[in-house]
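User: Please predict the structure of the protein below. I'd like the answer in structure-token form so I can feed it into my own downstream comparison script.

Assistant: Understood. Taking the following sequence of 629 residues as input:
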Amino acid sequence: MSKQTLSFQAEVAQLLKLVTHSLYSNPEIFLRELISNASDACDKLRFEALNNNAYYENDPDLKVRVSFDAKAKTLTITDNGIGMSQQEAIEHLGTIAKSGTRDFVSHLSGDQKADSQLIGQFGVGFYSGFIVADKITVESRRAGLPAEQGVRWVSEGTGEFEVSEIERTERGTSIILHMKDDAAEYLNAWKLKSIINKYSDHISLPILMAKEEWKEGEDDQPGEMVATGEWETVNQAAALWTRAKKDITQEQYDEFYKQISYDQQPPLSTTHNRVEGATEYTQLLFIPAKAPMDLYNREKAAGVKLYVKRVFIMDDAQALLPSYLRFVKGVVDSSDLPLNVSRELLQESRAVKAIREGNTRRVLSMIEDLANNDAEKFTTFYAEFGAVLKEGLGEDHANRERLAKLLRFASSTTDTASVGFADYKARMKEGQEAIYYITADTLAAAKSSPQLEIFRKKGIEVLLMADRVDEWALNYLNEFDGTPLQSVAKGAVDLGKLQDEDEKKAAEEAQTQFKPVLDKLKDALKDKASDVRATSRLVDSPACLVVQDGDMSTQLARMLKQAGQAVPEIKPILEVNAQHALVRKLEASSELPSFDDLAHILFDQALLAEGGMPADPAAYVRRVNALLV
């Protein structure tokens, strides 16, 4: 029998060292992980057997067996799933190619409770066996291979593992844990059953253990539990979503959510529905309480688990929810899709379109329910997912109005993101004809923007938007409930009925009287500004930058450049406050050689005020220094 000794990849060896040094505060998760892996192996067999029924090998009843030998100090988890060939055992158990170990190790935080959840999230659950075992033996045979092509994999959790060929008549995998002395509590039927009930009750396969019965002692000997030679199912063996809602507790929903999401916290909201009609499916969906660390990684697949007639098809079925709801976790079980559905077919299927629309409506209803009935939970939700929700304005035209009602912002009257468009409209000043807002890189920059000065003076509320997605999203929302949205940093300031005639007249006169200086400023700044004009929007500041209505803001242009995207040249308009002392000095210096330097300082200061950076910071410093000496 051939045997070879191989080394773990460096990252796997590092992980094993962490595990064996008791990183985890919750050691019982090892059983959850190994049973979950066994269930996955059975799901994979069922899926592959759709095209090759011979894989069942006269053993069609898929199951997981858990057994132990207290004297030998071994615990064994066996499945009759897809199994592994020798090469697959080497790849799956010894290298990083399949395990995601590098990602796992890079995310370790030192928080034991959190780290114990990560072990499942990155697909390295097998290694959790070393929490309780000082040696693991894996015996397996892949479905379709002859008995003599079984494989045995053995490791003591050090830097090496052994692989050899064995004869194995049964298909599937047995994981034999040689338990540490301090893990004897897991060689107990009651303890194992309690862990299975806690973590694995939702597994749709039967989890079997040896049936035991109480036998009374004889001749003053104590009684004991003895094996009957039969196997019994110790979990419900029915997928949670297939059971009636009235038979499921919120605690069971929460535990199921934790298993599929690898989250430690219960979800903020849960919905479980059987949808009937032209398309029939069951949806069990959850809104998490906390955003995953990769929420903004668009390359990572995100979506719900897809089952067809209770047969697992795929994780992360992206076609079943729009991208802006990628934080939602859960399961969809369809009665209308073919069992061999592919990812390509998912993109085109009419039934999938109906499921996607139904899921979207249901999730938005969950969020609306939080907004209307649980302010604290909605605040938590919005802090974690509000920015992602805004993406829906551009991606989901059909639900744009529903989404707009859910959005919240800070404003010039409050620093918290608590002001909805409806709230804003309810307290608009008499005669106000638009919902005013400003976008900026940060909330502080928005709040201190010179463009707000005239609005503060008149007591007009302005929504402050500092999420990177805001300006892009608002390109798709021009009005709310019949009231137009107006950026205070775009176009000429027009307060309509809120601006009295004297103010309008003063602005027009300033534009005329100040024209020679404006023309000279425009000439000095022709490479930076598309126009220079007097404004009535400024009170305390000498100047600000605005763009034409419909143009990209300087803030969005900066953001796109930082992301490496090509951006057309943006030349903003410089608006100046004709009443400001600095601008008056410009007028007095219009014939002096220092005029150009003053003009550039004025422009660069306006750029700095909105969070930008002068194109030539050294030149800006040089010009300011020249004025100071």
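That's the full token string. Residues 96-101 have pLDDT under 50 and may be disordered.
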